[in-house]
What we know:
The protein is α/β, with parallel strands linked by helices. It is built from nine helices and eight strands. An eight-stranded mixed β-sheet has the order 1-2-4-3-5-6-7-8, sandwiched between helices.
Amino acid sequence: MLDFPPFRVHPFLRTAHLQTVIAPYLPFRQMPYSAKQRVIVLADGDRVVLHDDVPQQWQPGGHVALLVHGLGGSYQSGYVARAALKLSQLGVRAFRMDLRGCGAGYKLARHPVHAGRSDDVAAALTSVRKLCPGSPIVVVGYSMGGNLVLKMAGEFGENVPAQLDSIVSIAPPLDLHACSKNLRTGMNRIYDKHYVWRCIRAVERRRRLVPGAVHRELWPRPRSLREFNNVFTAPLGGFRDADDYYDQASARRVVPNIRVQTLILTSVDDPIIPASGFEQINYPDCVHVRMAAAGGHMGFFSRAGCDPDRRWMDWRVVDWVKLRFKI
């Protein structure tokens, strides 16, 4: 069922850090933006945006994908845009979700996004089901978005919504404790510093530009992502502290409850998401874990010859969709 070709690392991007830092930003074919923006009102009054890309050949009841980006991303992120293009070429209607305060929904949310807001993805899924009655839907999440879609699926348990065909989760931080510890070791501290800098900058920008945005002063400045989560994410998200946030937001604790076909795709050498986080989990039979030997964090820039282009990760999403939808 899952006979994916192995990832063969590009000779100029052999290390995990090169795959992580360089590969995602190498040029790729862009899809001209023609999506219809659909605003979703969440339970607390905040709003998020779906970007609805409808292929010319799509018909009611046709195949649908919901794509969810990672931390600091949006509908414009390369990995989301590439997947939307490839799926559209298959005739799959792709909805690209902007999480709270991201992309086109930047000024539409008062509360910040975090790794536990699986209810937001569930609300997006409900909207997609209403817009596409009778259509089978694959939900694809990347990095933090991968944790969100796994957490959502685990929370559904036996009550899998009609039309939800399957889940794809790529490089998910499903054990936030392990990820936090990993980011504070060796060269990985570079990513920790980068993430906390981006988070602080985003908070300060939202305070200036978004009316009514909930806020906490960041002084003294957090020096790590864990400190940021302790003084900002946790209290504003209703958690006691960073440990409580990591406990409740990690998809790991609900993965055993998943009852929908699910693919988890990650790499052994991911410098951000440690392989140890995927161990000692009671995976149900419907959850398929594929861990490549290399690829970094969502890099997966390969040698030529395996796929139509070098974006190995994208083509595995395509393979899964073709398998599930029998395209």
